User: What shape does this take?
Amino acid sequence: MFEAHSINAEHKDLIHDVAYDYYGQRMATCSSDQSVKVWDQDEQKNWILSASWKAHSGSVWKVTWAHPEFGQVLATCSFDRTAAIWEEIIGETPPQGERGLKTWIRRTNLVDSRTSVTDVKFGPKSLGLQLATCSTDGVIRIYEAPDVMNLSQWTLQFEVQCKLPCSCLTWSHSFSRLHPPMIAVGSDDPNPLNGSKVAIFEYSENSRRWTKTESLQSIGVTEPVHDIAFAPNLGRSFHLLAIATKDVRIVTLGSPPEGSSQRFNVQLTAQPEDNLSGTVWRVSWNILGTILASSGDDGCVRLWKANYMNSWKCIAELRGDGTLAKSDSSTSSMPTMSQVAAPNQSSTNRYNYMKLGAITNPTQVPKGSAAIPTSKWQPIGRFQRKTWIGSDYGSYGSPPPLEKPSKVLCSKNHRLFSPPGAGILSEHDSES
Assistant: This one.
């Protein structure tokens, strides 16, 4: 089911982030060695190093790709208090049979932060070319490129203040116009007395401001948050948010009940504690938002999926060497039908069913029992009128009469049907 490939990344220090492009055919890595590397996949599914350069003067925490509609564009953030925008350009046309020279150029440096920039994410394509950054000074900064053909010009549109240092953020990618732009941010503040470590911000077109609408205080996320990710929303009326803390948590943000003053109905959909050992550092959704991948201190990658009871279970567990540690078809962990019908002994069912017997042959009916007749009107030929071929039981007598249609249209190649309620369908071709 799974196939693992080992890549010698040739980074000289710890790798902090790996990001795939929109099509999954290019990959970017960043490290504490201050460098960024770009890998391309060839026809044999091998990853080939295509570019490597020193991106910052400090550890590079995150790297992310822009939508391909805006070209081959990367964004990085670093401990050196900056975020950078990189664009790939292709040199002169090479001779036939040779590949063109591709180089990555720094288009701009975003230097508004006074502390380490911990995360950077491009916004949904529908909003244009926007970029959000967060830093340990507790500020979310949102930039926009007014001219997508000139990536050297970026404008700081908003500065959103958070009360806690920020460690990660995520955009809500929703295709519904009913959902305004939304950003969730997490904090790795170790003090549990400072309250919830997750905040939800929404953009209002009326006030043209980003406002905090939810803090997830009800679910009690007081541990440091290392990663956070909205599931792609392809039409759901609610949002799914994955949070990486000491374990994996999946939160549902739905519509509040009528008359409620809350913005969302927040529910902790899943907090799977089984099969986990160690802190969770990364969470990532598939493109449909149905499978969640998580990785942690134990060196394993786990895939989580919800069953028909909306219970999230680990369906696969991959070790660091690529071997499959666990594969759960989710049949053993799912509740049985009897458990679904009777979740506990005290519950009462509306209907009770008992097996009274079995009939192997419909013609073998015990005495005193009324057999259920089957229709003996059968068509003879493809376009001819149905014909009564008799009954198995003489007690039913002659065949029931065919009701005549109330209105008959006679013309060549027309089909005649009995009126509704007659229960008998008649088809034939008639000539006028």
Remarks:
- Helices lie at 337-341.
- DSSP finds one helix and 29 strands in the chain.
- Residues 37 and 225 are 27 Å apart (CA to CA).
- The mean pLDDT is 78.
